[in-house]
Amino acid sequence: MNTPTPERTKTPVFIAFVTNDDTRNIVAAIREDNPQATVEEFPAMVKIESPGRLVVKRQSVSDLMGRDWDLQEIHLNLISLSGSINETEDEFELYWGQAA
Amino acid sequence: MQVDIKTSNIKQLRNTFSHVARRLGADKPASRYQEATFDMQSDTNFHYRPIWDPQFELYDTARTAIKMADWYSFKDPRQYYYGVYTMNRAKQQDAAEKQFEFAEKRGVFFNLSEKDKEHLIFAVLPLRHYEWGANMNNCFCTSFGYGAAITQATMYNTMDRLGLAQYVSRLGLLLDGNIGDSLEVGKQHWLHTPEWQELRRSMENLFVTKDWFEVFLAQNFVMDGLVYPMFYKHLETRLNPMAGQTFSMCTNFMQEWFVETQRWVDSTIKTAVDESPENKEILSRWFDIWMTETTRALQPLMTALFAEEAASIFMQIKEELLVRAKKIGLKTPGAPA
Amino acid sequence: MSAVPKNTGNKKLGLKEKYGMMTRGLGWDTTYQAMDDVFPYDQFEGIKIHDWDKWEDPFRLTMDAYWKFQGEKEKKLYAIIDAFAQNNGQFNVTDARYINTLKLFLTGVSPLEYAAHRGYAHVGRSFRGVSARIASQMQAIDELRHAQTQVHTISHYNKFFNGLHDFRHMHDRVWYLSVPKSYFEDAQSAGPFEFITAISFSFEYVLTNLLFMPFMSGAAYNGDMATVTFGFSAQSDESRHMTLGLEVVKFMLEQDPGNKDIVQKWIDKWFWRGYRLLALVSMMMDYMLPKRVMSWQEAWETYFEKNGGALFEDLSRYGIRMPKYHEVASKEKSRLSHEVWATFYNFSHAAAFHTWVPEESELKWLSEKYPDTFDKHYRPRFEHWDALQKEGKRWSNPGLPMLCQLCQVPTIFTEPDDPTTTCLRETTYHGMKYHFCSDGCKDIFDNEPEKYVQSWLPVHQIFQGNCGGEGLDNVLKYYNLVPGQDNGEYMGSQDQMNWEQWTGRDHKDAPAA
């Protein structure tokens, strides 16, 4: 898992989802785990921006959904994203700058 | 927004696209397969020759000795377009997933004796590399083939082979309890163990074969036509019963896949054979060459896996393939023209 | 060699290691045939890869997961396409002028999805790195998905509107469609590293939002829910594609310092070619959407100047700089769409979509969005043409435009620093003179003249008699373009009259954008 290093910029990364019941929980989880993130709503789409880094945690989403959520299910509702990606079984991370 | 539609005035202008209508002979409603497939590949007015192979155009019928008046004569009997293909495979992977879960829970493979494990690793795991080779060959066809009809299907085959390779890999993980050592041993067999070398050599020879239709026939008709029955039909009988049953259950995907894929492969070759005596001649010649080659390549494995039964079982396998070949119009060796 | 794995307990593989076994572990270095013979295409470009194993797989999707998720997405998508057809959803769009954006999309963009499918299949066989091949193959099948879902979605519109009916035939022949066709064939005829830099990086990472946002948001704003749905569905694949683009560029840059200059050259070339291709999108955004999302200028500022800026800032640590001529694109942003739409207005009789003079409310929007240029340079033209049209003398240019040898867009752009002068450049090569719309295009040609002298330029071909013969009628026949249906002025077209008859609505009643 990567932790922010001094070289990481604060340039925002973003992730965008289709608006539906599942993503409501994903967005809520992201808000919890990324206090600096901002959420923007568009027709049929929701976009979350965060300075430098954004992390989606499997456990947080599962807790909110009330079932075991597979991180790879993110593909079902993903529209777009920016930044470099680091994916493990438990976390999906977007970032700019050097990997830790 | 409420729309006041004057329904009595609405008349459709046409049923389908013009290029589809031309192929159907009239402007009739078309199937999703037809609209997704017909004429999707450019066939004229190319701007630049590939700098990596300038003797050919970007898409070029000259890349194969097979000649067709219409490259869209090739119809996939499964009528796979992307949607149907993925939805079908999704169902199949769901079933396979349950089979693997069951096998893992029961530990049938994990609890085998060392000797039985060794044998399974030797007999089966190198097939993940065979599948990877088949992936490369079908990708080659997709890249250099002509017309969207054939290349669409070879694209699906390409990804199928990756899936198959991954399923074989998971068999290994069942054997070694998710550590991965069995896969390493399997790879060593593929690279070094004498019994596997001739098949690997054949595969590598196919990697440098330039005519994509020849590659299609060699890989999808001949090699698969011998390898699949060998490993996914007959091998079970030579494994210890518990392992054999679990092996059969966990390779159900492969068995079903082979039956389904055969239909398409046979139909494709038959269409090419029926086109002209020249095509028939060329395809029959290729069949003869690769049949001889693959038969030779598989003998060491047959002996290692089937011992005293090797000759008779291979005879069965070969006979079945010859029957298929005859049915689609290939001239079989020794048979009257 | 017969070592049996010891039952050392459950040292289970992590996601990364397991995925490695499911992918890169499948390949091997061939010994019965030389690796260079098995992989003949991945070294001639001069890109040096020392260790393919350093390739990072951003998305670790095994095939069973791919089938599962993609199958799920297809199920949902086709349910919506079916519902759209059953409910005659096409009547919910703002007005029939919107359909012309779909005509441009189906004839210009959808064939590129197919070309991408074949291009990635080629790359998927060409790289000697296993992980890179797998990523390319997944993209190859994804692009086939996009081509097919677009055809399936727009198929329903084809039943009711003109200009869509022979999109494949037209893509290979019609004059403005050689812009996208040549763009993609340029990438396909290049080597695998250039192809993947051009498409995965330059197009699908740097410029993608300038294609996606206009068309998909345009669809959403104008009531075209079917297109919105396939757009969003395709975009989820695009996220995987974008990451491939960024990954491949970083990989090349990290593998060998010598790769940097080659990569920079490609970044420069493909930024410019992609930018010129997007000229068609600029006109779509500012002129063809009854309900407009944002101006081309705003889109350029948001998605290139801001977003692209962040990306190149990230890449600067490798010594990569912003693409050459990006400042020209910025200078052109307040002019591009107007110059292009004006051109299509001129040649409407030869195009497979309709054109029209914007309504007064729309001209007002353009004045507001382009305060420095629209009223000064472009409004007078539209007012002039409008006046002619009211007199029954709708303007139609009887000549044929000069095309840029490289991008194949008509040479109608203006000098970066002077909007009153057409920008023309030329080069003489082996005694023949070649013409360009810009320094950007000329530079690309000068770098690889042997390639671009081959261009099948539609206007040259017409003059040479290769497009059906002499005269407009013969050319339109060659295009399979039905005169009086597919082409010409929107007002009085079959599309417009049918729309009014079917929905009782006329766009002249529609509220301002």
Task: Give a structural overview.
The complex is a heterotrimer of chains A (100), B (337) and C (513). The radius of gyration of chain A is 13 Å and the shape is globular. Chain A has a single domain, classed as Phenol Hydroxylase P2 Protein (Alpha-Beta Complex). In chain A, the strands form two sheets. Chain A has a four-stranded antiparallel sheet with strand order 2-3-1-5. Chain A has a three-stranded antiparallel sheet with strand order 4-7-6. Chain A has three helices and seven strands, in the order E-H-E-E-E-H-H-E-E-E. Helix content of chain A is 25%, strand content 37%. The termini of chain A are close together. Chain B is mainly alpha-helical. Chain B has a single domain, classed as Ribonucleotide Reductase, subunit A (Orthogonal Bundle). Chain B has helices spanning 18-24, 32-37, 82-106, 114-124, 127-144, 148-175, 181-192, 194-207, 212-234, 241-250, 252-275, 277-306, 310-327. In chain B, helix 9 (212-234) packs parallel to helix 12. Chain C has a domain at 53-351 and 495-509: Ribonucleotide Reductase, subunit A (Orthogonal Bundle), CATH 1.10.620. Chain C is 58% helix and 3% strand. Chain C has 23 helices and four strands. In chain C, strands 1-2 form a two-stranded antiparallel ribbon. A two-stranded antiparallel ribbon of chain C has the order 3-4. In chain C, helix 6 (130-158) packs antiparallel against helix 11. Chain C is globular, with a radius of gyration of 24 Å. At the B-C interface, helix 2, helix 3, helix 4, helix 5 and helix 6 of B face helix 1, helix 3, helix 5, helix 6 and helix 7 of C.
